[in-house]
Each structure stands twice: as C-alpha cells, then as structure tokens.
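question for whoever is on the cluster today: can someone run the full assembly for these? two chains, 493 residues total. i dont have access anymore since they changed the login thing
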Amino acid sequence: MFIFLVIVVLTALAFDFTNGFHDTANAMATSIATKALSPKAAVTLCAVLNLVGAFLSVEVALTVTTAVIRIQTSTGGVRPELVTDGGFNILLILLAGLAGAIIWNVLTWLWGLPSSSSHALFGGLVGATIAGLGFNEVKWFGEGASLGGVVGKVAIPALLSPLIAVIVSAIGTRLVFAITNGVNQYYRETGFRWGQIGTASLVSLSHGTNDAQKTMGIVTLALIASGHWDDLHSIPFWVKLACALAIAAGTYIGGWRIIRTMGHGLVEISSPQGMAAEASSAAVILASSQLGFALSTTHVATGSIMGTGIGIGAKVRWSVAGKMLFAWLTTFPAAGLIGALMYLIGNAIGGPVGAFTVFGLLGAIACGFYVISRRNRISSANVNEEWKEDA
Amino acid sequence: MEQFMAVLNAAWQILLAGILFGAGLPALFAFGIRALAWGTGGEAEEHAVGEEKKPHLAGRLVAYAAFAFVMLGMLAGIGFIAAHGLGIAITFDGIMPVFTKK
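^ ran it for u. tokens below:
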C-alpha cells in the first residue's frame, strides 16, 4: 500500500513537471520570439518565478477535485465511505487520472500544440472517476449562482476566456501602435522589450501560484485517502517543496516545440505586440482569479497572442489556430478517455500489480513520444528559426 | 439560469478589468515611449531626410512619470498574486482595496 502511494506521488510530480514545460510558452513565447530575452534567459527567469510563485501559495486549497468530481467533502477530506478499502480505489482513480493527463500533455507537446494542463488534469480525473465510481460521481453542473462542475469550471471558461483575451489584447495592440506612431521602429522595438519582460514575469509568477497548487492539492489528497495525513488546514512541507521544484524544473526544460508554435506559428510578433499580449494575459488571469472564474492560462495566452495579430491586421496563420482550437476542444474528453482506460486496466489486473502496470504503461508511452520527438528536435538553438507552412 | 447569469456577471467584469489594466498599461507604456522618443529626439523619431529632431527635457520627464505608473501597476499585480497566495481576500470598497484574511 505504501509503495502504491509512492507511485501516485511520483506520478503527480511527473504531471507537475509536464505542467511546467507545457506552460513555459504562455509566459515566455513572446519574449523569446522578439528576442527581448535569449531563450535560456527566458526559461530561467520563468522557472525562478514559478518556484517563487509556488512557495507563495501558503494557503493551498485541498478541495482541488471538488470542482468536477465528488470524492471529497467540502472541507477537503475524502468521503469516508470511499476509503473503506484503505483508500486503494481512490489512489487508483488519482493515478489513472494523472496518467491520462500526462499522456495527453506529452502528446500535445509532441504536436507542438498549447493545450491546457488543468483541463487535462480535470479530464483525466473525470474519466477515471466515471470508470471507477460511475457517472453520478461526476459533478457536471454547478449549484445556484456559484460556477462549478464540468460545465461551469471547464467548458464555459474554455469558450469565454480566449474570447475575452482576444478582445483585450486587440484593443491594447491597436492603442499601442496608434500612440507610438512617429517613433522610429527600431527605437520602439527595443523600448518595448522592457515592458515585455515585466508583463511576462507577472504571467510566470501567477502561473506558479495557480498551477503548482493543483498538484500540491492532489498529492495531499492521496496522503489523506491512504491515511498518511489528516490535517485539513495545511499541507506537508515536503509536498510543497517537491511540487515547487517539479514545476520549476519542467519550466526550465522548456517546451520548445510549444514555444515555437506560440511565438512564431500563430502570428509573427514584434515587441510592442508582445507586451500588449502579455499584459492582456496577466490582467485577464488576475481578474479571473479574483472572481473565482477558473480559466486556463494557456487559453488566455493563446487568445492574447491571436488578438495582438488581429489588432493590427497582421497575418494570423489560421491553419495553426485551427489546430489549437482542436487541441482545446479535445483535451478534456481525450485525457478523460485515457484516464478511464488506465483505471480499467489497473482495476482489471488489480492490486499493486495493477498500479504498477498503469505506472509502467505511462512511462513507456511517454518515453515513446519522447523518442518520436527526437526525429525533428526543437530546442533553444532552433526555436526561432523561420516558420515553414505545415512544418 | 442562475449559472448563466453567474457566467455573464463574471465575464463582463473580467472584460472590463482586462481592458482597463491589460490594454491600459501597455497604452500608458506606449505613451511613455512616445514621450521618450520626443524627449530624446535625433534618430528616436521618424524624420524626413536632413530634418533634425531636437531633444526635449519635458518629454523625458513625462516619459519617466509614465514608466513609474506602469511599474506601480506591475507591483500592484505582484502584490495581488502574493495576497491571493497567502490566503488574503481582496475586496473593493469603491476603488479602495480592502484586505481580509480568508
């Protein structure tokens, strides 16, 4: 049982790591594309800010899963009737859900597509819950006037947040170019790099506080379910440290394939556009967290970059935008499907062997994707190469 | 229906705050760059061949003031993130922020 818990914790940290490299692009793609920062400097800055951000989350919400599934009580504990088996089933659900999220994250990274890690996580958990506990244990809708459930926390924000970001960033870009009319282009480009770095740092910091928390919540939930932790008001320090390091390490590795798509694939951006895009992302993310609107950093960042192209009538590569849209729509159900499948496999084999099988499968699939990615490697060295259509 | 209204309620507030800060701060920064270019003169501004652009001290001062405001905005953003991380809820009484422990 203890070894099973260790596997779940390791898998959660692996998810946190993929969460890191998947989302480096959200904050840093624009700064790398406009050469405001060198690729290495950008990922280093972003990783440090993610680390700081993760430690800033002193108050970690243990209720991370209550938005979409019903395995927890409202205070953050696990429903007692679900852990009569010593928490085995809950651990398997968490493991399968995390596995679904990781596999989808790695696959979309291979494709160079920015997809939402939180949607992947929620999707995986929902899929594994349907397989493990049934359809009714999924919370589809929120209650009353507070947004909740799959519809309120996943579907609606996914539709609205990119739209809001597009509008804000298009307005910002248009204003910036109208105001700086008459300024020498080179002078403008270099001046805006400073603004770009500042706003991108804000996005990195808020990412650290938001996303590292989710994994901290999941790990602590696994500890609670297996009876290794019972304090609902705090989380173990090692959990916080491990999660902070995992997300920062992932960020530092950098998802270069995604950075390239967001910095060059969608729109070729200049540094004033970069600043407008990151400021829009930061403002929309902060306003949403204030209002408890659960949006995805990824959706906002891509929306902002798109908006900055639309704002000045620059060329937006709609074929790339179409692929991104596809990734957005499929992330939740696809991660769910993989999560469900993983649960069924683990449960059919049963016991610790089943858990090991899921863990092994996950490792094999992720390594397979990595091997495929080596065929056309994208790294800090060639991230800024000219974009070729359908490359 | 209540859910739908909750969505609309959040969405318009996010849009408004987004435009105010997300588009406003870059615009203010752009204003700073514009003023700095005017203040610097020379090659900082577009000019006809042979035309000479003079530097203006006022332009530079205005620019630094604009950048200072942008910095304040970003610091507010950092404070905001930190407050949320520390579990402090921020509510607004008019425009004055009120901090309460969650």
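summary bc i know u wont read the tokens: Chain B has a mean pLDDT of 85. Chain B touches chain A through 47 residues (CB under 8 Å).
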